Each structure stands twice: as C-alpha cells, then as structure tokens.
Amino acid sequence: MRTVVLGAGRMGRRHIQVVRELELDLIGICDPNLDTLALADKEQGIPIELHYPDAPSLFKEKQSECIIVTTAAPTPCEYTCLAAKQGANYILCEKPTAISFAQCDQILESSAKHDTRLAINHQTRFMKQYAEPKRLIS
Q: Would you say residue 125 has pLDDT above 70?
C-alpha cells in the first residue's frame, strides 16, 4: 500500500519504522524542518528523493493510499483534509487532531465527502482508567 508520513519528528519516525515493519510502500515523508528530514534519513535510511518540505508539493507528485499525519498543531486539520481531498483511502491522524470543534467537524466532513476511512490514534483507550468506565457503561 502506497503510504506517506506527514511529520518526521519523533512520532513520525516511529510511524516510518512501523510502515516498514508492515512492508507498506513508503513513497514520501514530509516535514518543513530540513534537519528533521535529515534525522529521518539518518535513523531510518529514507532517501532524499522521498523528502518533501510541504504536503501540497508531495501530493502534487505522489498518489498515496494511506496517509499518516503526525504533525503538531495547527496543521493536522489542514493536512488531514488535504489528504482526503487528494484521494487517500486511509488516514491515521495522531493527536492533536484539531485545535477546535470546528476543525474536528471539518475533518469529519472532508473524510465523509471523499469516502476516506479516518482513524485517530488514541492509545489511552486501553488504559484502565478509561477502559473500566467504558466497560461499565457497555
């Protein structure tokens, strides 16, 4: 599956590692910080031809099926909506997903409009203080 990781910071580099472990086809990484892209290359061996300083230029050149958004606020909303619009089948967005309820609505509307499957990474759902109330309510 052709996959892109937007954001090459600590979390983005972890996702790059997982993409490779899953044997997905990593076709690009994006980060406006060139030093961060260089670190991704050093740690993960990402060739420079897969480095992009911004999402629009990456999407202009590459058509991906899966997009992982790991950027810091306020860009996740913009990038998630852009990914849906460019035709991604699947988007995984790390937190923070948005900086307002309006942005959350925008993300949901864009995903629905473009028939994109959206997942928000909330690993805390497995923690006892969250899982137990859910179990009791269920």
A: no
Whether the CB-CB separation of 31 and 12 falls below 8 Å is answered with yes
What are the DSSP calls for 50-74, one per residue?
GEESSHHHHHHH---SEEEE-PPTT
Is residue 64 a contact partner of residue 11, using CB atoms and an 8 Å limit?
Answer: no
- Single pTM value for the model: 0.87
Q: How far apart are CA 63 and CA 87, in angstroms?
A: 8
Q: How many domains does the chain have?
A: 1
For residue 12, the SS3 value is helix
* Alpha-carbon span 130 to 108, nearest angstrom: 23
Range of the domain at 17: 2-137
